[in-house]
Amino acid sequence: MRILVIMGRVLDPGGIAVNRRRGRIFVNREEYVMQPADRCALEAALRIKDGLQPRGAEVVALPRSVLPDDDVLRLAVATGADRAIHLTSEGTVEADDAGIAQVLAAAAERLGGADLVLTGATTLDTGQAQLGPRLAEALGWPQILSALHVEASDGHVAVILKQGKQYVTVEADLPAVVTVLPDALKPRYPDGVRLINVYKRIGELAAAVEQWDVADLVDVEALTPLLEKRGQDFPPERERGVRVTGAPREMAQALADALRQWAPS
Amino acid sequence: MDFTFSPEHVALRRMIREFAENEVAPIAAEIDREGRVPFETLKMMGEMGLLGVCFPQEYGGMDAGETGYCILMEELGRVCTSTATNVGAHIGIGAMSIYLDGTEEQKQKYLTPLARGEKIAAFVLTEADAGSDAAAIRTRAVREGDSWILDGTKTFNTNGSFAEIVTVLAVTDPTLGARGGITAFIVESDTPGFEVGTHENKMGIRGSSTAELIFDGMRVPHENVLGKVGEGFVSFMKTLDMGRLTLGAACLGGAQAALDWSIEWAKTRKQFGVELAHKQSVQWMIADMATEVEALRSLVYRVAWMVDTDQPFTQLAAMCKMYGSEVASRAIDTALQIHGGLGYTRDFPIERAFRDARIAEIFEGTNEIQRIVIASNIFRQHGVRIRP
Q: Is the CB of residue B347 less than 8 Å away from at least one CB of chain A?
């Protein structure tokens, strides 16, 4: 089985400060981390791979966009992915998720196909949830979104997700695209030896991260973005918490309702 | 001069920091309060390969060099001195002694499981009457056919109460003293005659185990002699040299943590209408603290680089330990002053850091011994041989 995991990076939220008064985001420390939802997608892929031992599965990491460096992909290999494909380009690639979906679909074909594609359900910075569905469309595969739990074997995937207050299991025949929620799973730490070897580019992992030119996969000119960013603004200031008033019994009821509404899923 | 860390070391630090913050830090107060060794986090570190961070991959290690090991100690020291102590005793002196002086067979048999984190190591030297005066040990090893019989009591041993593989220094020829009369042995702790005695009730690093070890007619095979018979003292001193650098790295982590807490406190605590950050006395305290931390950081990683490039490092490693332990103590003391009364309570990590830091000026060779080592090296370079 070949599982593709689409992974991106995001600025470490701990290194940025939001200044509402000046309407700007200040980057105090420019450090990138894996998109949390993508990291859960990788963990889901690795758990499927662990479950399929000794036949095993091949987990290949690909990027969510044309990244300036392959750090996220190296980290994916260090964590357990068998290989990774870094997308490079001579010039800048003007593409949004729709365009990248075309690139990734072409990459999947060049890899010789895949059985399952996993990616994060949303991005931490932009809150986008497009990539999974758009990639499913580009591949012509079924899609299951916002998974909490994924199991796959021999031509079949079963996903648990939340619908309202219930958990439901949704199944599909492979190949399929599944997107995973952030915090769905506790992701594993990278393996130290793999980490050193993939970053030093030695041993078995010397060629684990391959460089593919986007121009070899699609016509870069044809990737016109569908989305145009026209500006940004801050959401209105929210009052924190909920105010309850009334007689003690009414207040208790209102408080209980609020707590139930906010209860973690 | 390129002062940047290599990509693998940057990635390693990120991985260790996340691990330290998510797994080690949350239980730091608890293991101190309960006086227990966090076996669960040691196991996780073993699985990640961290317990063999500096050893070659052919022996199950990670091959991240001394620099990688300093990074590990710094990141652990930043969140939990007890954990840094457990790991330091295992890697830096326990397993290290086998790496430096073991035969190929000994390394395959003993170093490999240690590097993989499958077993834990300890380094057994100190006795009741032999602390700084390490050559005054009295544990005896007597040859009997193809084994040695060890008898004696060792004190203040870290990890010895649960380690599976320990390296022990014993007297093989009482007439010869340190030069020729002392031998190192690799001992498996399930050997009959190996007993764990009293556990010390310590001021700090209470999440580490410090215990008495008693050897009573313990039979150790001759092939477990580490290095050559009679040359154990020299080989143990070599191991301690390596350990000094990484203790300096752990102190760096502790000092950095004190600095970070002080900055956060100065940003939030208000008195006389303004945050403490606007008060000059606090600014100066933080400026001094930050300068010492930077100086220590430069020293530690420069010495790590010297080790990784096979340059002599004894004198500078002693400086790392001496300066590092004193910087950490000063930083934590200043942090306590900045935090005031609240810092004195157990609700804050400072009182634990204060108790934990103090030992660094004492163990692994007291700072007085370090000063002697440094001065001896300096004068030897000038043609004067000092006798301590």
A: no
